[in-house]
Amino acid sequence: MAAFAQSAPCWVDVQLPDLEAGKRFYGELFGWTFRAGEGPRADALGEGRLVAALAAKKDGRMPTAWGVYFATDDIEASVARVRAAGGQVITEPVPAGRAGVLAQAADPGGAVFGLWQAGERAGFQKQNEPGSFCWTEVHTRRKDRVDPFYEEVFGFRSADIADLVTDTPDTDETRIDFRTWSPPGTEPGPDTAVGGRSVITDAFPAELPSHFLSYFNVTDCDATARTVQRLGGRVTEPPLDIPYGRMAVLQDDQGAVFAVLQEPAS
Questions:
Q1: Which domain of life is it from (predicted)?
Q2: Average pLDDT, stretch 13-36?
């Protein structure tokens, strides 16, 4: 079992109204295969390695959404830090069989995330490869509260994106109010970043809540966007070039939002 560094994203899952429809959608989109998980869940596999999980919603009032989990070696201490830093604990630590212990929390802006203390399952067996998780970021309107929260809870060391793209002309992309997170004990910057924070501006609807957006690596961003549409999903942000490749924000055929990233050609 490969261990994850403290505070690193280690798992994603999606809550869906129709689990079987979700398996059809993501199976065709990313080439995933599935095996039965605990309860109304399915483990997603890419080339036989764990990449994510799909779950049937137990309550129709739950959001149809992708969720991300951060690794911790002491989930009780992490939960205590969430409370001390002004966050909310939604689900107290609970064992997930022998796989590990999970909890759910929300930051001061309302964005929900998970905590995972590994047992027999560390998390992803495949990441940063086509068809697997590669990045996550929180979108918030309350950066003044959220930035210190993640630094206190996870020990993240932060760097503003403007400091990271100094060789890039002054375009809209470089002016985005964006901050990257690097794990404790590392030098903050693009080589160590595991996630980040973006600000929701007034250009977005007021009802858009704070949320995490998780990205999956793909070989062809534009083709992936077309496939999502063919499968009944939507393109919410069309493919565009950013300093780290080509990305798009997409929505599956049940309403769960995710992003894809095509890395630049080497």
A1: Bacteria
A2: 97
C-alpha closest to that of 5 among 82, 116, 139: 116
Count CB neighbours of 78 within 10 A: 23
Long-range contacts at 56-61 (CB < 8 A, ≥ 24 apart): 56/15, 56/16, 56/17, 56/18, 56/19, 57/15, 57/16, 57/17, 60/17
Average pLDDT over residues 237-242: 94
Q: Which of 111, 63, 117 is nearest to 86 (CA)?
A: 111
195-210: b (≥16 Cβ within 10 Å) or e:
bbbbbbeeeeeeeeeb
Q: Strand order of the sheet with strand 245-251?
A: 157-160, 178-182, 195-199, 133-140, 211-218, 257-262, 245-251, 234-242
Q: Which of 120, 110, 182 is nearest to 146 (CA)?
A: 110
Q: How far apart are CA 244 and CA 261, in angstroms?
A: 8
**Average of per-residue pLDDT across 155-167:** 66
Task: Give the per-residue pLDDT at 162.
Answer: 55
What would the pLDDT profile of 49-93 be if each residue is shown by its tens digit? 999 999 999 887 889 999 999 999 999 999 999 999 999 999 999
> Contact 109/141 with Cβ under 8 angstroms?
yes
CA 265 to chain CA centroid, Å, is 24
Confidence of residue 179 (pLDDT cuts 50, 70, 90): very high
Domains of the chain as residue ranges with CATH: 9-262 (3.10.180.10)
* 75 half-sphere exposure, CB direction, 13 A CA radius: 21
Chain CA centroid to CA 231, Å: 22
| Cβ atoms within 10 Å of 148's Cβ, excluding its own | 14
